[in-house]
Known about the structure:
Keywords: DNA-binding. The chain is an all-alpha fold.
Amino acid sequence: xxxxxxxxxxxxxxxxxxxxxxxxxxxxxxxxxxxxxxxxxxxxxxxxxxxxxxxxxxxxxxxxxxxxxxxxxxxxxxxxxxxxxxxxxxxxxxxxxxxxxxxxxxxxxxxxxxxxxxxxxxxxxxxxxxxxxxxxxxxxxxxxxxxxxxxxxxxxxxxxxxxxxxxxxxxxxxxxxxxxxxxxxxxxxxxxxxxxxxxxxxxxxxxxxxxxx
Length: 213
C-alpha cells in the first residue's frame, strides 16, 4: 500500500525560497502569498504586504507593476510549471495500483499531501479562480490539458470495481468532495481538532462505501 511519508512534494514555498532573486522581491512574494491565502487578494492592501515583508511600497512596485502583476507572479509558476509536473508524477504512480482500496488510498493520501504542501497557493487559487478572469483562464488551460488523461486512466483502473449506476465524473466528484471539504475545513477552521491519519482513513472508508460494488 502507498505510504504518505514515502512521497516528498517540493512545495511552492520551498521552490520560492530556493530561487535566486533580490531579497526584497522574495520577501514581498512570501508575504503576499501568506496574506492572500489568509485574507484574499481583494482583502489585502499593498501597505500590509509591505509591512509584513519589511519593505516599502516603493519596493513592491519596483518589482511588480501592479498588485495584479504580483498575484500573477505568485500563481503562474504553480499553474504553468508545478501543476503539470505534479500531474505527470501523479499519473505515473497511479499506474502502480489496481484494486479499488489501493487506488482510493493512493488518491486520498497523495492529493492530501499535495494540498497541504501547497496550502497557501491552493487557497489563493480557490479564491481567485472564480472571480479573476486572468487566473481563471490560466487554470482552465491546465485543467483542460490534464483532465482527459486523468479521466481515462481512472476509468480504466476503477470503473469495473465501481457500482454500475455511477459514472467516472460522479466517482471523481465523490473523492474530491470528501477530501476537498476536509482540506478546506483545516484551512478555514484551524481550531477544530483534526487527526489526519485517522481522518483520512475514515474518508477512504466513506468513499469506498459510496462507490464500491
